[in-house]
Amino acid sequence: MVAQSGPTLGSGESQVPEAGPRARANRWTPWVFRIGSVGLVLVIWELYGRAQETTLFFVPVSSVLAALWGQLQSAEFWDAFGQTFIPFIWGWLLSLAVGIVLGLLIGRFNTFDALTKPYVTFLNALPVSTLVPIAVILFGIGYASRILVVFLFGVVEVTLNTAAGVRYVNKDLIEMGESFNASQPRLFRKVIFPASLPGIMAGVRIGTGRAVVGMVVVEILLVAVGMGRLILRYRGRFQSADLYAVVLALIIFGILLQVLARQIERRVSKWKHEMEQIA
Amino acid sequence: MIEIEGIGRRFNTRDGGSFEALKDVSFSVKDKEFFSIIGPSGCGKTTLLKMVAGLVKPTAGRIDIDGQTVIGPGEDRAMVFQQFVLLPWADILTNVGFGLELRGMSRKESREAAKPYLEQVGLTRFAEHYPHELSGGMQQRVGLARALAVGPDILLMDEPFGALDAQTRQLMQEDLMRLWEVEQTTVIFVTHSMDEAAYLSDRVLVMDTHPGRVREILDVPLPRPREESTRRSPVFNELTSHMWHELRGMMGDPTLPAPE
């Protein structure tokens, strides 16, 4: 027998908000302001740069972009980029992998939380840059210390956000899972892990930002290779346009990674965003 | 047959003392019976239901189902929650099959097995929608279908219509009656609503509070199937006003007017 569907059926459809022209206009408005804001700064930069008597210290943005374009054609830039980028990727991926696993364990098991809390608190309280000299003494100035520094920068945020994501999973969902007699591993896989994904992805996004900071710190403090060497050299020769260009390249790289992380987060936590829009 | 024998539950309070939520609760529920528990807020009726579900352990007494003492959740029972508790990231069909999935079925199989239950609650065309796209009443139909899909002997319902508006609530009660006549499961139904208890049940347990305990168990001598007109019968009115009299006494305010 089929239950008669009362008049309530179908009324739910109207709860889906329609993306009218107004909603679309609102979506683009922030972009107008963002682009306008950046454009304004670039114009001021350019004008102020041109007003300088020398290009030794402050360089107009057009010269910086020209220098960057020139560097993008050179093999030296890409070698340096590779030397910076490859250890970054390893340190970054390592921080995500370790941070997510650690965070899941900390969020799920109180014992594990207690065991690791001193270290997590320590890393969270400490400016990680202060560990760079120790990393250099232990591992030299090669890939290993670069990977370690990037890892240390990223791992804390990934861990803490993942743990929070697990800890704040709706208790009702867990109780529902238990009421259906799910085994603990299955409850974790089917309920707790997917419900923690928004927290995990927030950790990935914030951790990626921190790892990029770690990468830049490495370039400034460990100057023997990579982009840091270019910075040192251009600074020494007062090739300011080239110096600015290298810094700009690092910034652009950082922004691209942030955008990527945010896109992944959006995709994975789609249900959460949709729910929040309606709530 | 569910036998509840001398159930008690104490909670430790922060100041080191303890608080007795339930005391010496005994009753039994027959197979295929629709049994409601009603009582004022804080009488421990939800705690009692969760004990039958195996989610909360009693500190005294025991619960036997067909002679087996409950020590945890089991495949013979399924629960329907007041706040629906659907997976927000999964579509409706996956949600209906989720009880089966939690018991080891693959996603694909459970979705297939869920289809007839989705049809039973009249939501087939919403199979690929997400919970937040549905009204409260529809979401609870999904919650009900999820519980029915595991083929339980005992359906445990914790104020399932408590979060719905009055009209939706009445429709859901009528739908539940139709489903229950077909499914023939034992139901334990916790509610605040006297009308709901009288309309749905074979028997109603009225609970007293501080500590939660059995006040009385009422037989509901209304013919089945229950219909719209059931709500206007003299027996129905007599029952609800009796319940109101009992509950009002417990709430400590004898001056409150009785409902119409």
* Helical amount of chain A: over 70%
Secondary structure tally, helices of chain A:
11
Q: Which secondary-structure class do the elements of chain A indicate?
A: mainly alpha
Q: Helical percent range of chain B? A: 25-40%
Number of E-type strands of chain B: 10
The CATH architecture of chain A can be named as Orthogonal Bundle
What is the approximate shape of chain B? globular
**Total separate domains of chain A:** 1
Oligomer: heterodimer
Low-confidence stretches of chain B: none
CATH topology of one domain in chain B: Rossmann fold
CATH class of chain A: Mainly Alpha
The main β sheet of chain A shows up as: none
Query: Spans of chain A of 5+ residues with little confidence (pLDDT < 50)?
Result: 1-19
Give the largest chain-chain interface (CB within 8 Å): A-B, 37 and 48 residues
Report the average pLDDT across residues of chain B: 91
Structural class of chain B: alpha/beta
How does this structure look, described?
The complex is a heterodimer of chains A (279) and B (260). Chain A has 279 residues and is mainly α. Helices cover 80% and strands 0% of the residues of chain A. Chain A is built from 11 helices and no strands. The longest helix of chain A is centred in the C-terminal third of the chain and has 38 residues, at 184-221. Chain A starts with 20 loop residues before the first helix and ends with a helix. Chain B is α/β, with parallel strands linked by helices. Chain B has helices spanning 45-53, 92-96, 98-102, 107-120, 136-149, 166-183, 194-200, 234-250; strands at residues 2-12, 18-29, 34-38, 60-65, 68-69, 77-80, 154-158, 186-191, 203-208, 213-219. Chain B has a 6-stranded mixed beta sheet, sandwiched between helices. A 4-stranded antiparallel beta sheet of chain B has the order 2-1-4-5, with helices on one face. In chain B, a hairpin with a 4-residue loop joins strand 9 and strand 10. Chains A and B meet through helix 7, helix 8 and helix 11 of A and strand 6, helix 3, helix 5 and helix 6 of B.
